[in-house]
Amino acid sequence: MLDWLERAGNKLPDPVVLFAGVSVAVAMLSAVLAALEWAVPHPSKDEAVAVVNLLSPDMLRRMWTDAVKNFGAFPPLASVLVAVMGIGVAEKTGLVGAVLGRAVASVPPRWLTAAMLFVGANGAIASDASFVVLVPLGATLWAQAGRHPLAGLAIAYAAVSGGYGANLLVTALDPLLAGLTDAAAKLVDPSVKVAATCNWFFNIASVFLVTGVGAWVAPSVEARFGPWHSREARAEGHDPALRPALISGLVTAVALVLVATFVIRGDSWAPVYDSMVILVATAAFVPGVVYGVVNGKIRSSNDAMRVVAEAASGMGAYIVLAFAAAQFVAWFNWSNLGIVLAVKGAAVVQSLGLPSTLLLALFVLLSGVLNVLVASASAKWAFMAPLFVPMLMLLGVDPATTQAAYRVGDAVTNVLTPLMPYMPIVLVAARRYVPEAGMGTVLAAQVPFAVAWGITWTAMLLGWHAMGWPLGLG
Q1: Which residues of the chain have pLDDT under 50?
Q2: Which residues of 282-297 are buried (b: 16+ CB within 10 A; e: fewer)?
């Protein structure tokens, strides 16, 4: 079945064409539903929300006038480019390869998969940078170990994207989602307060579930790729540049922690979360430059800027994809299709009169299905929370539990959506080793992870809910 899925997936058009096609489909659907006068009451305002016809003269004009603005406002674009400029220096000067060579020697082969899954499941600490760093890193690390690099890439991508609903620490996503949940809960009970740590305990347990279940599934995924005759240069012998680079990296990390704590933080940790990408880029840039200076690859500021430019030059395909993806996101938001379909879906679910446990399971499924169309966790929750949080509260489900169910569904299908904004990064990294690799190659390898996590993660949530255990603090 996975072989068939891989062949079918590889026949899909390029992601740019895919986004363009979906955008056209959204425009046509909006015209049809607007003609049918589809409208729903807004869940948090005393007004009606109707589907907007994107093919009307005003909206067609807006598609042209706002195209550049949509591109500039596309959230992942700047994050990816900044992260690549910092991390790319460490890669181009050879620091990444040197560190990986030592890492392969220090990590027992049987623990390599579990280690990648564990680190990836906590990748949301670094926000968008985790996709840019860990996914290509997984491929390189596996190749260094003499294992198929696409297996390492698939495992790293599954861990980072599937593990986005898990973490040992509170990440930037937690206060963002909790704020939306809190506002939605107040529609029913103004005294309710939903803290950013409301899912913390469950998120911690989820890290170990993602790691354990992922490690159980990974060998079957890796077996599909077969053997690999490594062509990666292994780091051997004494490397005089590595020690100074690592020392500079440690000093930089300590300095950045102090800056984040005493300069950036202010009254809350939110500014630190917003600065995470530039912090990660700086933490990689400084030791990368030191490594290049010591080994002779960087002899002047001109050499340093050349290395930065080389690192950024490989992102051309991603920039083109980001333009198409930005138009899709904007058009979908303009059409009001998201909120209208969500309200109608909520009405259908509510009419079923099902017990809360089964409703939670169905909500996980709904969240996963919507995630295939809209990859942004915060964007989906912005229009889902006002609908489902009050509805489930009236059925006796705590807002924190509803939010946790949303995050499980969102995380599980992150690995399956071809509309993931970071898919071009995955494909570029895969084609470095296997030029004919396509989207089907990546998605087929993610199906076992998605199925296994979907079943076990949902079961853990339902069991947690049945036992009445607190999901977090506050």
Answers
A1: 233, 235
A2: bbbbbbbbbbbbbbeb
